[in-house]
Amino acid sequence: MMEILAAVIAATAMQSHLPQFLTMLMDNTAGRAALEKGYGKDPQVNAIITAYWSLAAHHQWHPAIHYVKSALNISDPSSRHEVAFARQQGWHEVSMDTEPFLLAIKKFASDPSAEVSSLLADMLAWRSCTPSGLVRMRGVVEDAHPAGQTGVTSNQPADEGQKGLRGSFDA
Predict the structure, then answer these.
(1) Three-class DSSP category at 133
(2) I need a surface site. Which of 86, 89, 91, 107 has the fewest CB within 10 A?
(3) Using a CB cutoff of 8 Å and minimum separation of 24, what contacts does 27-32 make?
(4) What was the pLDDT predicted at 93?
(5) Does residue 92 contact residue 43 with C-beta atoms inside 8 Å?
(6) What is the mean pLDDT, run by run of 10 residues, along the chain of 171 residues?
(7) pLDDT at 34
(8) What whole-number distance in Å separates Cα of residue 135 and Cα of residue 46?
(9) Residue 100: which H helix or E strand, with range?
(10) Contact in structure between 152 and 7 (CB atoms under 8 Å)
(11) Distance (Å, whole) CA 85 – CA 118
């Protein structure tokens, strides 16, 4: 559940800054499978997944969700607060108040008659990363790649040839 929650929080927080075509990397196969197929075994997990796909439909996102081994996941050490590599790269830690997001999910998950439109409205209202916050994060977004790798990972289809976001966001 935590892997799915982290991915959905990151997408929700950055919703106004994400491109239509985006790539999500997860190091948890069960979480990836549940997010891709749109449901899991637990009602609370399903509420989180419903929140994500409602937001994705609203923004007309076309996500590609890929598995990456933990050892190859650039944000894995940071998620455990092992920040030496991140500091070497000049990355900055960004904190956010996730309480409004978590309350919206909890409210939706606990009410069988809850409307998805109400959940979506709550998610659209939660704008965690302000433009000034994004400016502070720009170095993180543009410079996030393992040492020795300088290629651009585009969030656009190959035929569009536009530069997309590259890097790592960790909720």
Answers:
(1) helix
(2) 107
(3) 27/3, 27/67, 27/68, 27/69, 27/70, 27/73, 27/76, 28/3, 29/67, 31/1, 31/3, 31/4, 31/7, 32/3, 32/65, 32/66, 32/67
(4) 74
(5) no
(6) 88 89 91 93 89 94 93 82 87 80 89 88 76 44 39 37 37 39
(7) 94
(8) 33
(9) helix 99-110
(10) no
(11) 40
**Alpha carbon distance 111, 105 (integer Å):** 10
Distance CA 63, CA 126 (A): 20
pLDDT at 133: 46
Q: What tokens were used for 14?
A: 């950055």
* Nearest Cα residue to 38 out of 28, 29, 48, 27: 48
Structure tokens at 146: 């393992």
**DSSP conformation class of 38:** T
DSSP state of 155: S
Q: What is the pLDDT of residue 153?
A: 37
Measured distance CA(105)–CA(42) in Å, rounded: 13
Q: pTM of the full predicted structure?
A: 0.68
